[in-house]
């Protein structure tokens, strides 16, 4: 007799409020009304939309057409997008490989109707029936395996230790290895063992057909680990993920006939040359012979050339894709448009000639280049002995490629070929602010309006990183050499190799690898490894005081900047810290307010520092009354040296579990 499942869906996240609990109960009632529906996940942290908004309209339009009768669903997979950025909606659905097309269409239709009710106003959601998975998102999800997505455990409460220990691992390993090799139309596998003394056992593995073989294999490896956690000693179990799932049972749960008779994809069309026409009676035998020999040779040469070009291009594409996958994993597919060939970069920089070199540092050299379309670029070529390693290189690409703001330097692309690590940026002609600021001759080119504009521009860029981008980014290495100036002396924040991304609602992060530059790092970051927006605010405050005074906060005796500024503030003479060149020309009101903002930013207690949005408001409205600053933190070191140190921090990670009373079937949420 077949043991039927009775499911309860309880993700292992703390229920932190009554509203959340009531929402969960309403979802559970909906699930109870749908006996085949197994689980769903909403992602409120990834964005919300309002009713009647453009995203709401696009979602409804896409869902209404998603499973229409004219949609090709022969191989159990649908992918579609609708709308214009940034309100585009992407949707994807796939069915179990043993389902017939019409049954698949019905399953996807049901879940596409149900899911928006379970996740109202959430921009991203995923739902699971027994035989199909459906998801939608504001971001592209095609061909991407997101490791951080939630997976669920489901198991049969009946015990069968012998069955699990002896037979299940073998079958699961078999389908896990076979499914990724099935190609884009057959990315699933089924297997069974009817020789077990404890009873029959059946296994099934499936990937979303848009995944690459590598990502499919990775996904199944991850979910198969979940089987060991949830279902050891059970008569059946499964782990489901938005990109794949794996399952075993003691009964036949898939269509054995359909699996055995699954159709192969249609053969590619082959274009053949037309048959030779009969020659006229007036043609000589010699002419016919020449034609019969030359024409096939020409056709053969053309075909060989075409095939060679195709294979070469395919090999190059595969090599580039392999490089992306090896270095960036699941994110690699989103970076194809940013990938430059080494030949292109060498041509643009005249093979990295000394004449094109415009800068050099511990990371390597920077070259000016010109692309074939005439666009000027800055090429940052990391040396193999660079302090900035592979991790920082990848981090900068993944972060800055997703950020766009006039006060952030624009990353145009990168190159990873022949052990080269190269970043390609927009060309910013006026170097960094320290090039002018700390040179006794060049600092005279920095008038008060330009310095005030630079302070405001840096504030705008940081405010975007902290509060207005779709990611919350902590720069962690903000200093004058990492702020570039364009041809109009507008500041652009650069060098995101040390930056960290945190959740939108996350206040702070911690690390045991401290990176940055003495004189610009906040005290809580140096001492405890804690970083947040407020640690960037501290760095900004130091830069403000340096821009005002023309002196470094680290270096010789007279550069103990924070001490001197605090002394002048207490004595009521804050303008005495200004660069002497500015004393006569600056706006006294603006300058005094900037000194006060700088001191507010470098206070010892992070909570007493303003946010970047507050600072932007202070700078744009001089009539706003500012708080009185407290004594700043003091850091006095002899040399501004980049720090990379390991701290022994005791970090513990806790997870919570919950179980539904009166339920025989249990469901766990894998930790992100």
Question: Which secondary structure elements does this structure contain, and how are they paired or packed?
Answer:
Layout: H1 18-33, E1 37-42, H2 54-66, E2 77-82, E3 89-95, H3 101-118, E4 125-129, E5 132-137, E6 152-159, H4 161-166, H5 168-178, E7 188-193, E8 201-207, H6 213-230, E9 234-241, E10 244-249, H7 256-260, H8 285-328, H9 342-348, E11 357-361, E12 364-370, E13 376-382, H10 390-400, E14 411-415, E15 421-426, H11 433-437, H12 448-468, E16 472-474, E17 483-485, E18 491-493, E19 500-502, E20 508-510, E21 513-517, H13 523-528, E22 530-532, H14 533-549, H15 561-570, H16 588-601, H17 612-620, E23 642-646, E24 667-669
Antiparallel strand pairs: 1-4, 2-3, 3-5, 4-5, 6-9, 6-24, 7-8, 8-10, 9-10, 11-12, 12-13, 13-15, 14-15, 16-19, 17-18, 20-22, 21-23
List its traits.
5-stranded antiparallel beta sheet, Killer Toxin P4, Chain A, 34% helix, ATP binding, protein serine/threonine kinase activity, Prot_kinase_dom, serine/threonine-protein kinase, alpha+beta, globular, disordered C terminus, 4 domains, 6-stranded antiparallel beta sheet, Phosphorylase Kinase, domain 1, transmembrane helix, 672 residues
